[in-house]
Design goal:
alpha+beta, globular
Amino acid sequence: MHKSILFGLLLLFAAPAAVAELPAAACTLLQSCRMVGEGQLRWWGFHVYDASLWSPSGRWQAQAPYALDIRYARRVTGAQLAETSVDELRRLGIGDEAALTRWGAAMRKLFPDVAPGSRLIGVHVPQRGALFYSATGYLGAIEDPEFARGFFAIWLDPRTQTPELRAALLGRDARPE
């Protein structure tokens, strides 16, 4: 994969220390918040982000509600987050060019610029799409189930660029594919 795309993905969602809970608004969607797993991404020795995966039962199921909480350690613009996400969706073969264009525009509207310590939380809602939160509140939704499956595949698909992080996020559910 092109190094700039990978580095952009690594910057996609990043923060300092592990967090013990999700913001209440995101947790309410899951009805119960139990951590599935957590991991840290480092790139060339630099701390990029911490991430944790949450579900109602503490076990990840692709077709059930879950949340991905990413805590940043670097500054990155919302536009860069959107562009990197589209590049990864394209690499994974998810969506045609029209869908990628639509999703990119929607993400550019939703994703704020982030700084060290910022949080972005994506909540997968089956048959609906993805809802996004910051540490302080609701950012918006992309109501497209295909987008939601693809967006979370960036981290959870076996073809992810970060297999060690995927295994950490899936915790005890991580099994060879």
